[in-house]
Write a structure and sequence with these properties.
It contains nine helices and two strands. With about 180 residues, it is mainly alpha-helical. Helix 1 packs across helix 2 and helix 2 packs across helix 3.
Length: about 180
């Protein structure tokens, strides 16, 4: 296989297969691929084009090549599936040519969304955690600096002082009573 011939070695395709096979599965060895990752590979590598090949086609082919009781395909079964999808994806090309073109889409590829959980936009988090914007009972849980008040902010702690809650002269009883003598 010469470099310029446009042929992709099976080893390159197998590397892509292994990268997708372990994607999102910590227990995966890379020698077998589940249906979800098979569809992902087909999407990421543009095998699914929405015209010749749809995700339904990919599902059907996956079911066809896997062993009945199995939920995964081996690399060998994967190559059979690709051979079947290739002629749909590249209509009018010979089987070999179509498979080569399909493998060309996969060579050097890896799952597109490594690190998909990007950190949420800071402004959204800031807005939601800014206690100065809180209303209602939530407002009571934080002091003006935004620091939580702890239990005081969460529970209604009864005032056992004996005074009515809104009475302004709290603590003046003794001086009034004793001062009159």
């Amino acid at each position: 296989m010469a470099e310029g011939s446009g042929e992709v070695s099976l080893a390159e395709v197998e590397t892509a297969f292994r990268k997708f096979a372990v994607h999102g599965d910590t227990k995966a060895t890379g020698s077998e691929m589940n249906g979800k990752n098979f569809v992902k590979l087909c999407k990421d590598c543009k095998v699914i084009d929405g015209k010749g090949v749809t995700s339904t086609d990919v599902d059907i082919v996956f079911s066809k090549v896997k062993v009945k009781s199995a939920r995964v395909v081996t690399f060998e079964q994967f190559t059979q599936a690709m051979a079947e999808l290739a002629t749909k994806r590249f209509k009018g090309k010979s089987q070999e040519e179509a498979v080569q073109l399909l493998y060309g889409l996969m060579a050097g590829k890896e799952p597109a969304n490594i690190g998909v959980t990007k950190v949420a936009k800071a402004s959204a988090v800031d807005r939601l955690t800014d206690s100065s914007k809180f209303t209602g009972s939530h407002k009571e849980r934080f002091d003006p600096s935004g620091k939580g008040k702890g239990r005081v902010g969460r529970e209604d702690i009864p005032d056992t002082s004996g005074y009515v809650s809104t009475y302004k002269g709290q603590g003046t009883y003794d001086s009034k009573v004793k001062g009159d003598e």
